[in-house]
Amino acid sequence: MAIHARMAVFYAPKLGRDEHEWQDGAAGYGGDPVTGRNPRFAVTDGAEEGFGSASWARHVAATFVAMGQPEGRMGGDVGRDVGGGADRGGEVDKDRPTLHRDALRQWLELARARWHGDPELARAGEVAPAGELARAGEVERLRLGSFATLLGCEVSGLGGADPRWDAVALGDTVLFHVRGDRVITQFPRIGADDFGVNPDGVSTEPDPLAAAVDRMAGQSGRLSEGDRLYLATDAFAQWMVATDRQDPDMLWAALAELDHPATFRALVADRRAAGEMTDDDVTLMRVQLVEAGPSHVVVCL
Question: Could you please report the per-residue DSSP string of 84-100?
Fold first, then answer.
């Protein structure tokens, strides 16, 4: 029986912030066995010091997931993002690119071009004249542009004997490949004390495309039915790394059983109050490999 990739996304803004102030991004596409298009997933973290970082983070995630879809507009599950504000369409290559350097350069060039060329996407960068800015720091943020860490993942071979995942990363957003209560792979391999130390990321500004892509790390792994992939932004990933050392049974059981946004936010609030989790925007994407597709859809309001 073929394996299916089932995605769930949980997120929370910083303590005391409104929903629209969440500056991470997440997008996923469950794949299409009829056309052979693979599942693809992305989680991003917009830099707080950047300008329009929330919109850029979601744009990066959505365009990465939609990279290589057949010509046409992104819609439905293709490039579906969490939180709104993602890219809404445009032509893409007819042939699905894999995560090789040339395809990634092509994707990043297109993502930047859409960002700068689409007035609605770029409206996060619209500001009043300098004399009317509330803070002088806004001028510098506008000059520097937007910036986001990236963890992008593609799953392939789900209908065959050798299913696998391939991922690229820039910065400290992390993928955990978990089997049962054991971490098979953490990518990138970052220690609990090493998060937030000048993380790299994808910028709106025209640094050389080749250099930006060359800085991306890559990793892959083989999958089995029942495996789970977790993609997490830095504050939550840091807590996962630390907790995996102390109580892995509790950690992976709790994350596997998450079934409602309120449960996730209660977990985050509890760990923040205990001083175990940094007060930052948090995002967790869980991709579970199951033998059958979902029999029903639950909408949490």
Answer: S---------SS---SS
Cβ distance 104 to 216 under 8 Å? yes
Kindly report the number of other CB atoms within 10 A of residue 159's CB atom: 13
Q: What is the CA 75 to chain-centroid distance, rounded?
A: 18
Q: At 270, which amino acid appears?
A: D
Q: Which of 80, 229, 97 is nearest to 151 (CA)?
A: 229
Residue reference for tokens 């071979």: 157
Has residue 135 been placed in a domain? yes
Question: Read out DSSP for 157-189?
Answer: -TTSS--EEEEEEESS-EEEEEETTEEEEEES-
Please give the tally of structural domains in the chain. Answer: 1
Name the phi and psi angles at 29, rounded to 5: -135, 125
Q: Which amino acid is at 247?
A: D
Asked if the peptide bond before residue 188 counts as cis, ω within 30 degrees of 0, the response is: yes
In order, the DSSP letters of 62-75 are: HHHHHTTPPSS---
Q: Does residue 301 belong to any structural domain of this protein?
A: no
Domain CATH number, residue 170: 3.60.40.10
State in Å, rounded, how far the first CA of the chain is from the last one: 33
How confident is the model over 186-229, as pLDDT tens digits?
A: 999 999 999 976 678 888 877 666 788 889 999 999 999 999 99
Within 10 angstroms of residue 184's Cβ, the number of other Cβ atoms is 15
55-87 pLDDT tens trace? 899 999 999 999 855 443 333 333 344 554 433
> How far apart are the C-alpha atoms of 290 and 60, rounded to whole Å?
28
H-helix segments, the chain: 53-66, 101-117, 137-144, 209-214, 234-246, 248-257, 261-273
**Structural domain includes residue 300:** no
Instruction: For residue 133, give its domain range.
Output: 4-290
> Side chain identity at 115, as an amino acid letter?
W
Confidence (pTM): 0.84
Q: Is 297 among the domain residues? A: no
Question: How far is the C-alpha of 151 from the C-alpha of 173, rounded, in Å?
Answer: 6
